[in-house]
């Protein structure tokens, strides 16, 4: 009797063992195949993005001062003057590798262009600056080639950037007369966009408002905002915040028929991190606390740091 029970149980044990072994073997095979052929694309995309960012960095020719990082240059130059034009280091990204070699010995009129992070670029130029927003063109004295840039801090996202208008920095024409200034400004101009994903509150802060604060608070109100892709309801919503950063009305640069002339132009805001400010990298070492103070009503001056008031 016992022998018959054993003979019945042995085939079951064998079959169960075969099933378990087959499952383990299939799991091993799947893990090997996945690791080899189905690797996540994010690592590769990140490497490509980093390589693209590195290739777009402009290296300044060494002159009398030692080399500094882009963040240090931005902090020094922007901190020196918010009211008058200076030669600044700033970032605007070139679309062609040949543009990296541009800039020779151009002095104050030379724009310095570089990626400020993997998702933001900035261009800063001083001299004879003429902004023809209706043609998406900025004429700059002292350069000999073009740079193209999109002033929205989400460069890693092609879907968002597809909805941002591109601006071109061009040298002033020599053969033909330059576009005549129809409106002159004595303060720097700052061009940014509320295209992309703006309208979503998270992206309003992360992609536009926080980078805008990082890049313009040091001007102490003496800066003219030029907004590309303007949504009137969006501007009305954040007008109290803009009043903390500029003394002037925001200009709808895309649809403006004027040729605006500035002593200095900055295109594109600097991104640090989602909904945050890195005090080590920001001009004046401001933090997210300063951003919150700037966000408060202009009437509540008692809660704002004295160093931020103008």
Automatic annotation (TrEMBL):
Membrane-traversing stretches: none
Biased composition (Low complexity): 83-102
Disordered: annotated segments: 49-115
Entry GO MF terms: glycosyltransferase activity
Name this protein carries in UniProt: Glycosyltransferase
Gene that this polypeptide is encoded by: LOC100280677
């Amino acid at each position: 009797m016992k022998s018959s029970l054993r003979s019945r149980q042995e085939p079951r044990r064998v079959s169960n063992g075969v099933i378990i072994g087959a499952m383990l073997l299939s799991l091993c095979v799947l893990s090997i195949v996945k690791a080899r052929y189905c690797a996540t694309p994010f690592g590769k995309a990140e490497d490509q993005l980093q390589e693209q960012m590195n290739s777009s960095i402009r290296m300044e020719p060494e002159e009398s001062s030692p080399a500094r990082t882009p963040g240090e240059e931005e902090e020094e130059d922007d901190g020196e003057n918010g009211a008058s034009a200076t030669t600044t280091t700033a970032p605007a990204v070139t679309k062609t590798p040949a543009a990296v070699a541009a800039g020779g010995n151009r002095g104050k009129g030379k724009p310095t262009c570089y990626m400020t992070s993997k998702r933001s670029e900035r261009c800063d130029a001083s001299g004879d600056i003429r902004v023809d927003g209706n043609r998406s063109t900025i004429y700059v004295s002292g350069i000999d080639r073009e740079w193209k840039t999109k002033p929205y801090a989400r460069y890693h996202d092609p879907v968002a950037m597809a909805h941002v208008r591109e601006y071109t920095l061009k040298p002033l024409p020599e053969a033909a007369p330059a576009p005549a200034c129809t409106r002159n400004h004595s303060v720097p101009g700052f061009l940014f966009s509320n295209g992309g994903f703006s309208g979503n509150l998270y992206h309003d802060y992360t992609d536009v408002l926080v980078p805008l604060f990082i890049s313009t608070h040091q001007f102490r109100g003496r800066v003219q905002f030029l907004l590309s892709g303007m949504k009137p309801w969006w501007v009305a919503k954040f007008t109290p915040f803009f009043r903390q950063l500029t003394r002037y009305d925001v200009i709808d640069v895309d649809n403006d028929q004027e040729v605006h002339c500035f002593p200095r132009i900055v295109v594109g805001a600097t991104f640090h991190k989602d909904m945050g400010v890195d005090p080590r990298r920001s001009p004046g070492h401001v933090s997210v606390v300063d951003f919150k103070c700037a966000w408060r009503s202009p009437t509540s001056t008692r809660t704002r740091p004295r160093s931020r008031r103008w």
